[in-house]
Write a structure and sequence with these properties.
The chain is globular, with a radius of gyration of 20 Å. The chain is built from eight helices and seven strands; from the N terminus they run αααββββαββαβααα. It is α+β, with helices and mostly antiparallel strands. The chain has two domains: 153 residues, Electron Transport, Fmn-binding Protein, Chain A (Pnp Oxidase, Chain A); 38 residues, no CATH class. The longest helix is centred in the last third of the chain and has 11 residues. It has a seven-stranded antiparallel beta sheet with strand order 2-1-5-6-7-4-3, with helices on one face. Strand 5 and strand 6 form a beta hairpin.
């Protein structure tokens, strides 16, 4: 056997999902999903272009930075980044997105899939202002699927375990890595300098 190209061939390697695994998928945000999002300071956003490459983007903020507007809608600010706009351009081309919410110290995750749109309404943007700075746009997602993901992946990763943390010096600074990757001239920005710069422009 080699490359698997059909669902039928794939399913031969796995047991059928349990009834609980199938039934846990909701078409709305129940109180438990809403509470999970309210406590989450970190979300990974997946998007793609039609028939094009997929992409994932980390998003973070104070707990609850993704706002639950109602049982089938969430919204979040597009905070300042590198201005590549990979995710936003993907949403314009293909509004289907997936979100994975994490809460520090909680091994379970929350998966939410839906349809996204980008909004530049001034009042909405102002309502998402941080440190007095409104975002350029707000992303609104109509929820189609929501379900709690089991703890196995985070447990395997020991993600919240202090013993699993590595010292930042184990890797070169971001500046050093970028200098080698794209051939920048001059001294590399240190990790301390980068963090100070980020602090100035974080929001």
């Amino acid at each position: 056997m080699g490359r698997i190209t059909t669902v039928e061939a794939l399913r031969q390697h796995y047991r059928a999902p349990t009834e609980r695994a199938v039934r846990k998928q909701l078409d709305h945000l129940d109180p438990h999903c809403r509470r999970f999002i309210e406590l989450s300071p970190f979300m990974v956003l997946a998007s793609s272009r039609p028939n094009g490459p997929g992409d994932v983007s980390p998003r973070g903020g104070e707990a609850g930075f993704v706002r639950v507007l109602d049982a089938t809608t969430v919204a979040f600010a597009d905070s300042p980044g590198n201005n590549r706009l990979d995710t936003l351009e993907n949403i314009i081309a293909n509004p289907e997105v997936g979100m994975l919410f994490l809460v520090p110290g909680v091994d379970e995750a929350l998966r939410v899939n839906g349809t996204a749109e980008i909004d530049d309404d001034a009042a909405l943007r102002e309502s998402f202002a941080t440190r007095g700075r409104p975002p350029a746009t707000v992303v609104r997602v109509a929820v189609r699927e929501a379900y709690l993901h089991c703890a196995k992946a985070v447990m395997r990763a020991r993600l919240w375990s202090p013993e699993a943390r590595i010292d930042r010096s184990t890797l070169p600074s971001m500046g050093e890595m970028l200098r080698e990757q794209i051939g920048l001239d001059g001294p590399a920005e240190t990790q301390r300098e980068m963090l100070a710069r980020y602090e100035e422009t974080l929001y």
